[in-house]
User: Which sequence fits this backbone?
């Protein structure tokens, strides 16, 4: 074989290896980052083990993709820069798919459909004034959204709202309640909830599933969901696996696994006991 023939043969081999990698054939392990402190999505048990809805779902998806997965806890604020720097391959941490985030990272198909709402202490003036409302309002429908927000604005005027600093709820409050109420930001749900009990905030905002889990964790009669639930627009289209834009092979793998988990009822089975509702995207 001539030198030229050897070079051509090597080129074909390398091309084949590249194609296999693009199809996911070379991925033996996927490194997944999670926060490990966002009950009930993901949290750390006393023995140091990670658990929660997303941890269980991650293991299920990895089994479907036939790859070994390593799941580690990371600080949420640095997750996206660390993902793009190659420190891990994916994020599963209730990362809501928003246009702003899609400018810098890619997402799998949604594995959870969520909406944002408020919760107040049971028996509080806000709970009595606003009450329970099981409607889901699209923020894309400006007229419907504004109509649904009016009673909330009246009840929250001059009040304090507790929101997680790194979450989508901050953008929601900034967009729709700026100038109406004071927003206090927290690094953890625990700190936020303590201030609700202490009266330093009058209401808290977050995804309905997470707030339902918070209410259940504190026991019956602690707090109630108030007002309707808002979806779309600034609060995004659901929660997906965050990925680097160039990892199209990994996106295809997660998309396929998530579709299967939706179709066979796995997401419903894992979410209902945890959240008290089915978060399967429709």
Assistant:
């Amino acid at each position: 074989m001539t030198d030229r023939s050897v070079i051509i043969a090597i080129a074909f081999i390398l091309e084949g290896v590249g194609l296999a990698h693009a199809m996911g054939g070379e991925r033996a392990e996927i490194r997944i980052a999670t926060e490990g402190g966002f009950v009930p999505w993901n949290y750390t048990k006393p023995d140091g083990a990670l658990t929660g809805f997303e941890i269980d779902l991650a293991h299920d998806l990895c089994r479907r993709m036939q790859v070994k997965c390593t799941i580690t806890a990371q600080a949420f604020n640095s997750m996206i820069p660390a993902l793009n720097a190659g420190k891990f391959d994916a994020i599963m941490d209730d990362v809501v798919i928003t246009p702003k985030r899609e400018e810098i990272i890619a997402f799998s198909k949604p594995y959870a459909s969520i909406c944002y709402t408020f919760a107040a202490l049971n028996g509080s003036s806000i709970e009595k004034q606003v009450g329970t409302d099981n409607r889901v309002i699209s923020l894309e429908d400006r007229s419907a959204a504004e109509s649904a927000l009016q009673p909330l604005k009246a009840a929250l005027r001059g009040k304090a709202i507790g929101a997680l600093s790194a979450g989508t709820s901050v953008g929601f409050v900034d967009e729709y309640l700026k100038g109406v109420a004071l927003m206090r930001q927290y690094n953890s749900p625990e700190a936020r909830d303590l201030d609700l009990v202490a009266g330093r905030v009058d209401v808290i905002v977050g995804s309905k599933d997470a707030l339902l889990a918070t209410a259940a964790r504190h026991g019956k009669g602690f707090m109630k969901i108030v007002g309707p639930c808002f979806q779309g627009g600034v609060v995004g289209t659901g929660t997906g696996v965050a990925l680097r834009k160039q990892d199209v092979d990994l996106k295809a793998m997660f998309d396929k696994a998530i579709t299967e988990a939706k179709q066979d009822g796995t997401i419903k089975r894992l979410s209902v006991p945890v959240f008290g509702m089915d978060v399967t995207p429709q």
Notes: The domain at 3-111+239-275 is CATH 3.40.190.10 (D-Maltodextrin-Binding Protein; domain 2). The chain is about 45% helix and 20% strand.
